[in-house]
Structure formats: structure tokens, C-alpha cells
Specification:
globular, 5-stranded parallel sheet, 223 residues, binds thymidine-5'-phosphate, Rossmann fold, 9 helices, alpha/beta
Length: 223
């Protein structure tokens, strides 16, 4: 039998496309939680443990395969999905659950919603398979997910100045990222109690204010 999925109130995730300003939003969340006296664990996916970070490199880094001859080896969509879940299974057990159990807040730069959006909507893999992996290998969901929503072209323009070497997913075309964005927005609309949609086209200070306000409202609702 598959396990139930627990939505944990102290587990917060940030989602969004490329260049949406997740790092700044995470810094805002961290400061707001520290100010209230909470322990905060910041983490990211794919990754978050040494082993899961190595899996991240397998998923994203095209340079390793370039050390051999010729083109990087294409990663099959199915292999990509299983690798992100391998990393997540490790991350949940080694970092996220222990932190939640000792009373800390966990803020994760991406979580399972990214798998539904990138591997499901982007790559076209069956969402029922992803849901099954989520139940069996993860069993945990954020209580609060902030979706930083931004026009695909604008996000890519922002991100392109930053990356010297685009990773495997950044090398995808705009139509892939349009499907990812639509997938995130659909998930946000389907789960309004968990998601807060943040318009990331605004100035960073305004986005920060929106993120802080969403956190305040969430914490207030937990009291
Ligand atoms: P980042 O650039 O925000 O650090 O995210 C790493 C990349 O990994 C990003 O392109 C999204 C992708 N990704 C997936 O495709 N599936 C997943 O489950 C996760 C967590 C990330």
C-alpha cells in the first residue's frame, strides 16, 4: 500500500521558472523567520545532501559528459524523473524530516511541484507516475508554496546574464518553459490553500514585500 502525504506547516517551498528571483525571496523568508526566533534550514532541490548534490550534477551538468568525446549524452526523460526522485528521497530522510522533527522551519528552493511541472508538463511524463513516486518515495509536502510567476522570455533574459554555461534544462527552448509555467499555474490554482502566487515581474523590493506578507499570513493562520 502507498503511504499518505503529510503537508507540514513548517515546511515552505519556493517554485518558479528561470530568473524569477527565488534566491532573493528565500533570503527574505530566512530573515523573517529568524527575526521571530525560529531555527531555519535553507535547502534546495535537486540536492540538499552531498549525495543528492552529486545526483544534481548528473541531472544538470553537461560538462562531465563533454570531457569524453563529442556531444553530451542525452538524458532520457524517464531517467531524469527517477534521478530527481532519488535525490529527493535522500534529501527528505537526511535533512528535511530531521529538521522538522527538531522544530525547525525548512525553506526549500524547489520541491516536488518542480517534478510535476518540468518532468510532467515539460517533458510529457505521466503525472500519475509522478504522484506514485511522491507517495512512495517522499510522503511529505510543504504546508506553504510560494510560486514566483514570471513571463518566460523575461525570466530567461534575466537568467542569461548570470550563467556562464547553461545547464541541461536551461538549454531547453521557450515552448518547454511555457509548458512548465502553465503547469505551475495550474497546480497553484488547484491547491489555493497551499500555494501563493507571487507576481515576480515587479521590482525585487516589491516581490520581497509580497513574499513577507504571504509568510505573515501563513504564520498567523497557524496560531
Ligand atoms: P534551479 O536552477 O532553480 O537551481 O533548479 C535546478 C533545475 O532543476 C531547474 O531547471 C529545474 C530543474 N528541476 C527539475 O527539472 N525537476 C525537479 O524536480 C527539480 C527539483 C528541479
Amino acid at each position: 500500500m502507498s503511504e499518505a502525504i503529510l503537508a507540514h506547516p513548517r515546511f515552505i517551498s519556493l517554485e518558479g521558472g528561470e530568473g524569477a528571483g527565488k534566491s532573493t525571496a528565500i533570503a527574505t523568508l530566512r530573515e523573517a523567520l529568524l527575526r521571530r526566533g525560529h531555527e531555519v534550514v535553507l535547502t534546495r532541490e535537486p540536492g540538499g545532501t552531498p549525495l543528492a548534490e552529486r545526483i544534481r550534477d548528473l541531472i544538470l551538468d553537461t560538462r562531465d559528459s563533454l570531457r569524453g568525446e563529442g556531444e553530451p549524452e542525452p538524458l532520457a526523460a524517464e531517467a531524469e524523473l527517477l534521478l530527481v526522485f532519488a535525490a529527493r528521497a535522500q534529501h527528505v530522510r537526511r535533512v528535511i524530516r530531521p529538521a522538522l522533527q527538531r522544530g525547525a522551519f525548512v525553506v526549500s528552493d524547489r520541491f516536488t511541484d518542480s517534478s510535476y511541472a518540468y518532468q510532467g508538463d515539460g517533458r510529457g511524463l505521466d503525472p500519475a507516475w509522478i504522484a506514485d513516486l511522491e507517495r512512495r518515495a517522499v510522503g511529505l509536502r510543504p504546508g506553504l508554496t510560494l510560486l514566483l510567476d514570471l513571463d518566460v522570455r523575461e525570466g530567461r533574459a534575466r537568467a542569461s546574464g548570470r550563467d556562464l554555461w547553461p545547464d541541461r534544462i536551461e538549454s531547453e527552448q521557450d515552448d518547454f518553459f511555457e509548458r512548465v509555467r502553465a503547469g505551475f499555474r495550474r497546480r497553484a490554482a488547484a491547491e489555493p490553500q497551499r500555494f501563493r502566487l507571487v507576481d515576480a515581474s515587479r521590482a525585487p523590493a516589491e516581490v520581497g514585500q509580497a513574499v513577507a506578507a504571504a509568510l505573515d499570513a501563513w504564520l498567523e493562520a497557524q496560531r
